[in-house]
Amino acid sequence: MSQSSQFSLLKQRRFAPFFWTQFLGAMNDNVFKVAFSSLVTYHAALFGNADPASAAFLISAIFIAPFVLLSATSGQIADRMDKARLIRLVKTLEIAIMAIGCAGFALRHVELLYLCTFLMGVHSTLFGPVKYAYLPQHLQSAELVGGNGLVEMGTFVAILIGTIGGGELANYTRNGELIGPMFTGIACIAIAVAGWMTARGVPVSPASQPDLRINWNPISETWRNLKLAGNQRAVFLSLLGISWLWFVGATFLTSFFAYARNVLGGDQNVVTLLLAVFSVGIGLGSVLCEKLSGRTVEIGLVPFGSIGMTVFAVDLYFASHAEALVAHDVLTGISGFLQSHRHWRVLADLFLLAMFGGFYSVPLYALIQSRSEPTHRARIIAANNILNALFMIASAVLAMVLTRAGFTIPQLFLVTGILNAVVAIYIYTLVPEFLIRFVMWLLIHTVYRVKVEGSEQIPDEGPCLLVCNHVSFVDAVVVGAFVRRPVRFVMDHRIFKVPLLSWFFRTVKAIPIAPMHEDPEMLKRAYDTIAAALAEGEVVCIFPEGKITATGEMNPFKDGMRRITERTPVPVVPMALRGLWGSFFSRKGGAAMSRPFRRGFLNKLELCIGTPVPAHAVSPETMQAAVLALRGERL
Fold first, then answer.
1. Residue 7, domain member (yes or no)
2. Are 117 and 80 part of one and the same domain?
3. Do residues 455 and 608 make contact, with C-beta atoms less than 8 angstroms apart?
4. Which of 71, 80, 480, 536 has its CA 20 to 30 A from that of 256?
5. What are the tens digits of pLDDT across the range 35-91?
6. Are residues 542 and 406 in the same domain?
7. Quick one: 330 and 451 in the same domain?
8. pLDDT tens string 228-287
9. Alpha helices by DSSP H, 45-179
């Protein structure tokens, strides 16, 4: 994956049949839901028992109810069964469900359509845990971000096609007669059959826990799944973060029908346009994640995404607030809609809000997959689906309460944007790792272009000690930004105590150290803390020169690393920074940070990572030679 584009996965059997199966499933969901919502909004008289004002919210709530009721059970089934076999069974069920939907459309029977909506929710509930547990079983760790990006992109392209197709099919007329519902039902069955055919190509995916005894009590198992997810704090809070995205997304998506008609004065084709723009935005954001993250699980993109979501949600309120309410009987098509420059601002806000949503979601999905235990990964995904469903139901309830209380749709968007900012701040307070990675990612990508070689040398789990040359004051930031795992840095106690920066260093759990002649007690505490961190399976980084170079050449390595590895035998990974000498943060030509713009912006740096050295072979001389070989001639 590191040598080729993520799109090469689409040519491989381990990924392609699965991708197209989930793509067709997502498309079918949306053909059905958009067609149903459009018909009860714009042809309410034909569906006498449906309330057009709240139908879209009700359809959304019915669809996601099975996620609350059955996700825990579906997670157990996914862990116990071969995932390929389960996918084929679910796709067979989809054909039967769509036959009911076809009957509902043909008879214009709203109760049958609500039943089909619920059953499609059951279908998606069964497929959900398989969808995300399948990927880490067949993809390498370096492929997870790219694979997730493709799945997210595919999902939202499928939503786009399903949205356009559902809207166009539902409202199709011939000689003044509405015949779209019948064509919609037939199309849904055809897509279900196509999904069943692609599912036959999904490769064998052995059960992760074939001897698991399934607990069929949904209440107790739901609670157990949530507790299971809660055992890993970062994973659980990532689940909450994803669920919050679904809250925001559901609020916008289910509002588009009323928003287009009552605020923008648009017909059903304008609804399709809004949904299409939103889908393209989140699809593009999902794909760009791999480019921005360097094919690692870059959780620093999560705050970046949440900031963008808030900014454009709030701006959408102001863009919409400028619109005059249009009478319900004066509805504009797409061509008329696009003639107003204000409408282009609305579309830009929706597109960018969705794109930043893609930046936000993909790293969280990849983090959950990479940090959850393989034996119960599907149940973690099931817990995610439960939380997603609860948040989406909360979204529907809040939207209905606020609209009935007199809030306009633009005001609903404003409330959602403000809530997003509050929730984001709360989550980043609980898990500073997200915000710290964002700060590191932003600083490094703004000032430098960094090439990383050998990132696979750092183990995905378990303790290790990183040793690196010390060229500048930003060495730790570069290393921290491009090592996939959280790193605890050992640093000079005087820098650790610098006002304002001290909070940051404490937050990243840096370890202050002092020479023996200055503070022997602090030195002992530092070694004790390093030993404890390694015993907990963490990654620790030291700069064994003990000071930043003043000449560009490495200072002699000190013996601290041997003391560390004698106490806690762990692999030691040599690293070398190249290209920082002569930068604003180095000591070339005098004091560091004394001459701004010394070399301009976007200078090229390299971080070279070597083969781990076993603890018994570690010495200052061998490690300095290893780092020097990695650094080469470039300073």
1. no
2. yes
3. no
4. 71
5. 888 888 777 667 666 666 667 777 878 888 888 888 878 888 888 888 889 999 999
6. no
7. no
8. 777 777 788 888 888 998 899 888 988 887 888 888 888 878 888 898 898 888 878 877
9. 55-80, 83-107, 110-138, 144-170
